[in-house]
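Sample entry (220 residues):
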Amino acid sequence: MINIMIVEDQELIRKSLRIVLESIADIKVISLAENGEEAIRSCEGKLPDVILMDIQMPIMDGVQATEKIKERWPEVKVIILTTFQDITFVRNALNAGAEGYILKAVDPQFLIKGIELVYHGGSLVPQQLAKEVFQTMSEESALQDNLEPSSHNPYQLNEQERKVLKYLAQGLANKAIAEMMFLSLGTVKNYISNIYSKLNVKNRSSAIMKAIDESLISKK
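Predicted structure, serialized as tokens:
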């Protein structure tokens, strides 16, 4: 059973999400909150496994709430919900520690699969959004393209790890990365584990954001 908290300031959306999620046998909505402060107070009573967190709310927004919840209860998974396809929100939410980011208008079945993925330790970064983030990063770092790849490698990533990190930022799944690099799935997973360790991050989302913010990968 996956215990869910829904944090959303619009009552209609809260109720709709609850109805959709409670129609699934292995998902239970254990609490509702209208803003980030209510979410934190609710966590003090009973911790959910996964929080569906709206990003734009009064009193305390989803990014602030995610950061505070992750500081106190790092085991709680957070999926940011938003209607805004804005790269800034993606960066802020994932940098705050969220495991994923998804649009409110997404198909319910995709939302449910996303919850299950995050619950089992995955990161939910929709491929198209990841591509947009990567493209923005590429444009911002265009002036650095004349530098040698090894000139900015503070974490001592080897060539294969840098390639894997680049593909992660493009939103590719492990299987797709394995096929593109002609490697086994196990080898790719080992590279990803090494990347997490070297970057001192805990999940795919954090690795992607660190790669973007510190220009660890090029668009080449």
